[in-house]
Amino acid sequence: MTVFARRARASAGRMHPELSLVSYTLLGHLEERGGCRATDLAAHYALDKSTVSRQVAALERTGLIERLLDPEDHRVQVLQLTDAGRQLLLQVTDSRRAAFKERLADWPEEDLRRFADYLTRYNDWTPPAAD
After folding, report:
1. What is the pLDDT of residues 55-78, one digit of tens each?
2. How far apart, in Å, are the Cα atoms of 36 and each of 8, 39, 65, 73, 113?
C-alpha cells in the first residue's frame, strides 16, 4: 500500500508540478458533484478546513477552479472546475487509464476479476460504529 501511495503522489507531481495528489482528488470530486462548497469538501474527505483552504487556493491560483455564487443562496460560494481544470483532469484520467492498462495487460481475466472484487471489498469497508 505504501508503494501504491508513493506512486500515486509521484504521478500527481508529473502531471502538474504545483499540484498534490489531494488537489487531484478534490478536482475529481468537484467534477463528479458538479461543484460544491469548500466546507463540503472538508466534510467529505474528513480534512481540516485549513487544509482544504490551502488546496483550494492553489487550484484557484493555477486557474483550475473558480468560485461562483450559489444561485440558491448568494451568501455561499460554490467551487467549480474551469475549462482548464476539466482539461487537466481529463488528461490525468487518460494517463492513469493507460498506465493501468499497461500494467494489467498480461493479467489473466480471472486475476483481473479477483483484483476488482478485492478493490471493491476494500473500498466498501466502513469502520464499526462507536458505542
Report:
1. 999 999 999 999 999 888 889 999
2. 25, 8, 11, 13, 34
Q: How far apart are alpha carbons 2 and 7 in whole angstroms? A: 9
Single-letter residue type at 86: R
Give CA–CA dist 23/93, Å, rounded. 14
Please tell me the distance from the alpha carbon of residue 40 to that of residue 45, in angstroms, as a whole number.
Answer: 9
Give the phi and the psi of residue 35 in degrees, each rounded to 5.
105, 155
Q: State the Cα–Cα distance between residues 81 and 88, nearest whole angstrom.
A: 10
Q: Which three cell numbers stand for residue 7?
A: 506512486
Residues in the chain where the model's pLDDT stays below 50: none
